[in-house]
Amino acid sequence: MNKVVDSLQSAVSEIGDGATIMIGGFGGSGAPIELIHALIDHGPKDLTVINNNAGNGHVGLAALIEQGMVAKIICSFPRSADPVVFTDLYLAGKIELELVPQGTLAERIRAGGAGIPAFYTPTSVGTELADGKPIAQFDGRSYVQERWLKADFAIIKADLGDAEGNLTYRMAARNFNPLMAMAAQTTVAQVSLVVPVGDIDPEHVVTSGIFVDRIVEVANPVQEETLNRQGAKYSAARS
Asked: Which of 86, 108, 164, 231 is the one with CA 20 to 30 A from 77?
C-alpha cells in the first residue's frame, strides 16, 4: 500500500473538530511545523493537543493555540522559552491545561500504544497532580495510578520514510515521535525524503509502517527556533 500523499493539506484533511491530537517534538526538535501550519489552514476547532510543551513564539504549536483552535493541552512544560500565547490564553481562562510530569507523559503515551490501560509511578505522590487518582502501596512505598494516553491522530516528523510508512529519525528528533505514532488511531508523518521501499535497512527502521497511515515529503523542513529568531508569526491562509 502506498501511503504517500501529494500535499500537506491532504495529509491533515481528515482531522475534524473535537479531535485529540498528539504532536511530536521536544521543543523544536522533531516538531512537524509544516504539518501544524497545514492543520491551521484546515481549521478544526476544539482540539485536545498532547505535546511536551505549549509552544514558543507565534509559529508551530503556539500558532495553533493562537488561532483559538485548541481547547485543552496536555503537556509537561507549558512555560518554556517564549510561551506568551499559551500564558495569555490560560490566564484568560480560554484554554484548559492538564499538567503531566515528563516521564509520566512519555509512559502514558507508550502505554497507550502498548495497550496498557494504567500503570503505577511514584512521581507526583503527595502533590496536587495526584489528587483524585488511586494510590497503592508496593514494597512499602506509595505509587499513583496513571492512565494511558491515546489519540485520534498523531502528527509527527521523521527523517526518511518509504511508501509503506517505515520511518527513521534524525538524532534528538526521535523523542516523542515513535511513541505517538503507536498511540494514535491515525498517524500522519512528514519526512525530509521519501525513498523507495527496501532502501531503508530494516535494522534502521524505528517506526514500522504498520503504525503510519499517511506520509508527506517536506524537503528542508523549517525549525521552530530559526523562525522564532527571525521574529516570524504564522498567519492562517484560510479565506
From this structure: 231
